[in-house]
Amino acid sequence: MAKKGFLEQLINSPLAAKAGVPQGFPLRRYKQGEPALHGPVVVGGAGRLTQALTRTLEGPYKLLKAEADTPRAGIVFDATGITRPEDLNTLFDFFNPQMRKLTDNARIVVIGTTPELIEDTDARIAARALEGFSRSVAKELRKSATAQLVYVDPAIDESNFTGVESTLRFLLSGKSAYVDGQVIRVTDTAAEAPADWDAPLAGRLAVVTGAARGIGAVIAETLARDGAKVICVDIPQAGEGLAQTANKVKGTALPLDVTDPAAAEKLASHAAERYGRKIDVVVHNAGVTRDKLLANMDAARWNMVQNINLVAPVRITEALLESDALGENPAIIGVSSIAGIAGNRGQTNYGTTKAGVIGFVNSLEARLAGIGGNINAVAPGFIETDMTAAMPTGPREVGRRMNSLQQGGQTIDVAETVAYFAATASKAVNGNIVRVCGQSMLGA
Q1: Which of 30, 178, 350, 420 is the catalytic position?
Q2: pTM value surpassing 0.85
Q3: Other C-beta atoms within 10 Å of 294: how many?
Q4: Does 350 qualify as catalytic in the annotation?
Q5: Does residue 90 sit in the same domain as residue 212?
Q6: For the segment 409-439, what is each residue's pLDDT rounded down to a tens digit?
Q7: How many CA atoms lie within 13 Å of 411's alpha carbon, on the beta-carbon side?
Q8: Sign of the C-alpha dihedral, residues 290, 291, 296, 297?
Q9: Is residue 98 part of a domain?
Q10: Is residue 195 part of a domain?
Q11: Could you tell me if 218 and 72 lie in one domain?
Q12: Looking at the structure, do residues 180 and 220 belong to the same domain, yes or no?
């Protein structure tokens, strides 16, 4: 243990930094009562949404002219006006002088038109090019600055801008500290802004599975912080931890095995009996790993991971939909993983289920939209948990640094993204898989 501690200290020392070992810059995360950003925001571009973006941001943020020499903590660029490949030089003309004016932990958000919804060939090509630009910029940024791309449905204007505003408020804040190089699509679904953006989940009843500890417990805490009532779910054997979480969030504890064929019925009954209402948010966080090389894996390991990680979320959601147990504007949130995007040695069972979660989201997005709801998933990368803390020093330290932010994420980073998806203001955000991985070098 002493040797391991010494090696870890050495890897994270100033000496190691001088030798070229990457050392992540501290992330500025959200804190209640603090400004969303620690500096002004520049709005650039000349597209169809520029005025709407300016009007939306000038309230919660201080706006700054692009040509000013003052450091800026945020840049929002409207690229919807780029409709030909020849116009892409606009990106260079605007961003080249901006890059040296950014503060630490700055936020860059590029706004484009959803390529799949564009009929004009030139405009579609130009819109798709924005992905390579934004992801490359994200890899060039330093001191924990991030860059994202938001694709906006061409039917969106100021009359149905709430989904864009909810997304901007998430990305232009410490809530997205470990989200980097991502692409988020916003549909033209109409949504209402919350009465209080500091409590965007007020009036919502949420279910969080796997809530006894780790990421699940923090998700429950974050949803409660944002105004939701929370039903905390975990297996009966985790009763003590489950009760602690429920007490902390002033919610209720429901000991339940998610693989129980009657799980959905028990969730709906609990909501009706204890809260007198239907369920608004379901976070399918419960999951396990049982790692082995495929050649050495037994059926029990495969089946346990499959049933808990994938089959249970699918069957519970289907049953809740069929029994009309979900409220208005329901939000379903799955937990995928970069292992489901890029694969991982020794995790064929786990990677299969986490890719299946992506299929789960894609398959149900139209159905959820049809009842005024949405379904999305988070895909965590290297998150600091008890599991990663138990890893050997070498693999753990490599895992921490294999991303643009050169550090591991925290459980709160996953929880913040879940809370963003869960808000009614985000119901236009549908069918997305957002990686919470610091722009990991693994996956797309």
Answers
A1: 350
A2: yes
A3: 11
A4: yes
A5: no
A6: 999 999 999 999 999 999 999 999 999 999 9
A7: 17
A8: positive
A9: yes
A10: no
A11: no
A12: no
